[in-house]
Design a protein that fits this description.
The complex is a heterodimer of chains A (about 90) and B (about 400). With about 90 residues, chain A is an all-alpha fold. Helix content of chain A is about 40%, strand content about 0%. Chain A has three helices and no strands. In chain A, helix 1 packs across helix 2. Classes of the chains: A mainly alpha (about 90), B alpha/beta (about 400).
Amino acid sequence: MSVLDLPTLTRILRENAGVDESVDLSGDILDIPFPELGYDSLALLQAIGVIQRDLGVALDDDAASAETPREFLTVVNGGELPSAGNA
Amino acid sequence: MTAVVTGIGVAAPNGLGTDAYWQATLAGRGGLRPLTRFDASSYPSRVAGEIPDFEAAEHLPSRLLPQTDRMTRLALFAAEGALGDAGLRTEELPRYGVGVVTAASGGGVEFGQRELQALWSQGKEHVSAYQSFAWFYAVNSGQISIRHGLRGPSGVLVTEQAGGIDALGHARRHIRRGTPVVVSGGVDGALCPWGWVPQIATGLLSTTTDPERAYLPFASDAGGYVPGEGGAILVLEDDEQARARGARRYGEVAGYAATLDPAPGSGRPPGLLRAVRLALDDAGIGPDEVDVVFADGAAVPELDRIESDALTELFGPYGVPVTVPKSMTGRLFAGAALDTATALLAIRDGLIPPTAPVDGPAAEHRIDLVTGAPRPARLRTALVLARGYGGFNSALVLRGCTDTTESEETTR
């Protein structure tokens, strides 16, 4: 079972790191690299902190090196690829 | 190479934006208020120069909000104003042609306090990742350069309340070394308990609770100063380039010097007078050419005496108009760069703003303090002074640009 889906990830990013004005986070962004979404590694670290805190999961540093939302969700969900329904 | 100021951006307790600030300052309208940003009822000093009407979300993209202390938000606001005012298209300048040099006193301490409180009260999972830099005293230079893509020489000067002047002096060095534009100045603010307590510890803060009587530089009832938040960012530019693009030039940074006071008890004189002399020498002028002094105005009797003695020694008793418009904003720490902006606006309009609400100087200060209403005067050269706790003294000489450019004539 997934602990994190895409809508939750985008909500956490939106609330804790803001949103680049030129980006639509509600679109199909699973495979778009984070820099193109306006997020640097620090924004991911910020999100990781919130996920650990609010969802009660322990994450290692691998999550911060994820290059896309799909990779990030995969790491957070323990290697389980997010299903299409999560997008 | 000559460094001229071609852009001004202001965030001040009595006016957000250059025009609002300047109109309030000429009208003698101050921005000191009982502190509202935190519960100050248990502290001996309870008045501050708060900026009441700054909603960061109206001025900054949401990506910047979680990662910025209030002083950085205000600095970004002022920097955008300054670059817009200068009419510079930074993308058309050489890739490394625009530097950023700002001043800071303690960094983003309000952000830092919040995150440290989260650390000891809730644990490390509750600390923002942005704490890694948001507290840092160099953060304003960094955020300004990132937001506007400015890749030239950058830096930060930390000399307590003299830094806003020192940054401009350092920016001029970069112009002289060949960087055509440097965004410089200082915007500061530490209106939180962590920023407040060390100020109280200096013993220099006013404990008067009436905002109208709390900060009275050179007055007979001067009893310390009031801290404020805000400041100014200026665009310094190589004069040749400024002329070539027909920019409005507020004035030239003609002279600068900084000194450090001798150790207490040494018996040697304070360093302020020497800083002024060195700055005048640097500008190649004598005291007789100075038309107005924007004084440091600590409102601490001993410090006021040192300053008025220096001015009297150099200019003679009542020898030059002196003003301290920061009486209306509180002392802005690195934001002392605002005095430079104010002096340039005074030169532009031929008006010396008053030291409101001071009625007049104490008899022991034999200076021509401008009080009450703005004083019309033909201003060519202004001297700006700033001092910081720990013995910092800085002096800047500004000179109006005489030959008007075409764009100036068309906009008048």
